Amino acid sequence: MGKIFKDASVLFIITLVAGVLLGLVYQVTKEPIAAQNEKAKQEAYETVLESAEEFEVIYSEEDPDQKAWLTECLSNASEDFSKDDISEVVAGKSNGETVGYVITVVAHDGYAGDIKFSVGVSKEGEFLGTSILAIGETAGLGMRAKTDPSFLNQFKGATTNKFSLVTDGTGATDGDEVVDAISGSTVTSKAMTKGINAALAVFEKLAEGGNN
Q1: Helix, strand, coil percentages for the chain (3-state, nearest 5)
Q2: 128 CB contacts (<8 Å, ≥6 apart)?
Q3: If we measure between CA atoms, which residue out of 73, 123, 84, 71 comes closest to residue 102?
Q4: What are phi and psi of 24, to 5 degrees?
Q5: Max avg pLDDT among 5-9, 25-29, 31-35, 124-128
Q6: Looking at 26-35, 172-181, 198-207, which range is the least confident one?
Q7: 184 lies in a domain?
Q8: I need a labelling partner for 138 at 20 to 30 A (CA). Which of 10, 37, 51, 93 fits?
């Protein structure tokens, strides 16, 4: 009985010490991780909306009312965006004037899980670019969405409220709003294309005057 009590006590102490150490590690690393994430976001903003001198968050999922508006934008759209979330909308400004928006999307239907990325759209509706913030797709396949710029470059410069994806290689001949899937990575291609369309659905509402 004494041995069982002793073993249990040792196990409790080990667990307690491990918990304290993990807590300390979390506290030490929390701020650097947050700073790194913020730096990555700022770099994404600058990449997809180069003409902006400053950025202002106008909608965030952290605000319940704003999150409700973002959710409503997607739920009222003609396409099914039940697997997509908009985490943030940022207005890019130059000389005090809004020149476009950066919309951050989380696509939950990637092949290996969530894909988080930011897209830039000019005030006139021109699609300016995409910057991937987090992706865990298969190396050499879905990961090419990040490592090979040819897929995302297809979207740039188009003015449309919806992109269509094809898998037969005819995207380049069917107009700016039609893009070719990554070869062998249809799931990843669909997830990102639909996520981009979700961002465009939010932009459409912004162009109409937001939720005012």
Answers
A1: 45, 25, 30
A2: 48, 49, 50, 100, 119, 120, 121, 122, 156
A3: 123
A4: -65, -40
A5: 124-128
A6: 26-35
A7: yes
A8: 37
For residue 106, is it within any domain?
yes
Arithmetic mean of pLDDT, 8-20: 72
Model pLDDT for residues 32-88, shown as the tens digit of each residue: 655 666 677 788 899 999 999 999 999 999 999 999 999 999 999 989 999 999 999
**Token pair belonging to 79:** 């396409």
Structural domain includes residue 13: no
| Cβ atoms < 10 Å from Cβ of 63 | 12
Q: Is 201 left (phi over 0), alpha (psi -120 to 50) or beta?
A: alpha
Judged by DSSP in three states, 148 sits in coil
**What does 95-129 look like in DSSP terms, one character per residue?**
TTEEEEEEEEEEEEEETTEEEEEEEEEETT--EEE
In percent, the amount of the chain with pLDDT more than 70 equals 83
Q: Token digits for 74?
A: 């997607």
